[in-house]
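Lab notebook page, bench 4
Experiment: in silico fold of construct C2
Operator: M.H.
Input chain length: 53 residues
Purpose: comparison with the prior construct
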Amino acid sequence: MIVIRRLKDFALRLPEDSTLKRVLLAEEDMLSVEEFLIKLPLWLRLSNQDQDQ
């Protein structure tokens, strides 16, 4: 299992309109390695999208 609590703490500092923030905060605090690896590319795309705006 991977604990993403620190990632969620980071998300709390993102702007209120950040899609990445909403997605990360909706996740459980612990994900299986498989879940994490599946979700990581989406999170990276959302991060890039937020930076472009």
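Observations: The mean pLDDT is 94. The helical segments are 5-12, 19-26, 33-52.
Next step: discuss at group meeting.
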